[in-house]
Amino acid sequence: MTEPGSPATGHEVPVPPPVPRRPDPMLLVVAGVAVGVGIAAWHRPQPGMYVVAAALALGAVLRLLLRPRAAGSLVVRSRRVDVALLGLLAVAVGVLAAVTPFPAGK
Question: Could you tell me the residue ranges of all domains in the chain?
């Protein structure tokens, strides 16, 4: 059987091999945030929020170091704006986790 658009000679048109896809760095950040929220919900709120802050800081570092094509979904605006917003969110979550009084039992 021939591919559509193949010559009438009966030879198949070669199909290029699939291009391997890199995992999106955003998946790593989202996974870290999900783990942090899970820790905060089921175990201890303060360490969980520190994990969330660390995941956001990792996102800022990845956006800073990776080329735009390799950064995938972390690219939203310019590099400076993306890094500044992710870093600011990481610091804000970390500071709020540090200053929020949590009950001693939880």
Answer: 25-99
Question: What is the C-alpha to C-alpha distance for residues 69 and 3, in angstroms, rounded to an integer?
Answer: 32
Rounded Cα distance, 70 and 53, in Å = 23
Residue 15 C-alpha from the chain's centroid: 32
| pLDDT tens readout for residues 7-61 | 556 678 888 887 677 789 999 999 999 999 999 999 889 999 999 999 999 999 9
User: Residue 49 and residue 53: Cα distance in Å, rounded?
Assistant: 6
Q: Which helix (H) or strand (E) holds 27?
A: helix 25-42
Which two tokens mark 105?
A: 């039992």
Q: Name the CA dihedral angle for 32, 36, 42, 45, rounded to a multiple of 10 degrees.
A: 180
pTM over 0.90: no
- Residue 68 contacts residue 75 (beta carbons within 8 Å): yes
